[in-house]
Amino acid sequence: MVEISICICTFRRPQLLARLLNAIRMQDIQDVTLQIIVVDNDPAHSAQSELQKQLTLFGGRLMYIHLPVSNISLARNAAIDAAHGEWICMVDDDEYPRSSWLRELKSAQLSYQADVVFAPVLPEYDASTPDWVRRGGYFERRRLPNGTVIDHHDARSGNVLVRRSVLLAQAQNGAVFDPAFGRTGGEDSVLFRRLDMAGAKMIWCDDAPVFESVPAERATRKWLLQRSFRTGQLFMRTELLMTPAAQRPLRACWLALRAIVQALIGMLCVVLFILLAPQRAFSWARIVASQFGKLNHFAGKVPEAYGGAESS
């Protein structure tokens, strides 16, 4: 019988974690044994009460680890170290799946003999979310037909099934996820890029979505621009990390020049569209913010995304 280890990292979201764990208990899948591992990296151990309740409900299939360190890579690595399934499934604590989720992921893996299966993360807005946010699709990413072979550009850690042996083969100094990215994010981008370069077969399963809550504080122009800025920083950091050392200076110059040109074009487009098409102008503003983030990388500033209220 196949065993799947579901790895969840959580930080100060006990109610959302409960929703996710309840959905996992409702999974409709046969001939599979589940192991659920939750790593709480809140020093205050805010998930403890909920996890104590869930221990009884899961009947021994759930284990949790308290890791009071604000580093998402260390939390992910702790979960993987505790996993003993042939397959590892990663899902975020602010998401929840349908009852067919795991069945669809495993079916896609078998059908296409994949090493890694990625699936959609769909936004779930609350009643207060502005219409311009819904129309803009800022929390949506492209979807693909079932079985589409993808590369690292479409990879993400929020909804993925991966062969454990393939993951462990990418460990460096005993760590699958790079701790250097543990407070900034981007650790999953580095890992999946390495898997891609190593020749792992990565496919898309559009039939296994999870749904992600979009809190009101994220549905703002300020937050979206900050995210674009941070995405630009992380892009430059990971891109140069994965470039051979001898080629890095030339690559850095090219990427910086391209970012400057794109920022200038973007600013011009913001001015052109600000009155006639405000939503389009904002899309260009996000592009500008991303380019500024790329250039900011060279100032030596590292953005921290984990360790605050929205961590994990």
From TrEMBL:
SUPFAM superfamilies for the chain: Nucleotide-diphospho-sugar transferases
- Keywords in alphabetical order, please: Membrane, Transmembrane, Transmembrane helix
What positions does the domain Glycosyltransferase 2-like occupy?
Answer: 5-167
What InterPro entries is this protein classified in?
Glyco_trans_2-like, Glycosyltransf_2, Nucleotide-diphossugar_trans
- Short name of any one Pfam family annotated for the protein: Glycos_transf_2
List residues traversing the bilayer.
Answer: 254-277
Q: What is this protein called?
A: Glycosyltransferase family 2 protein
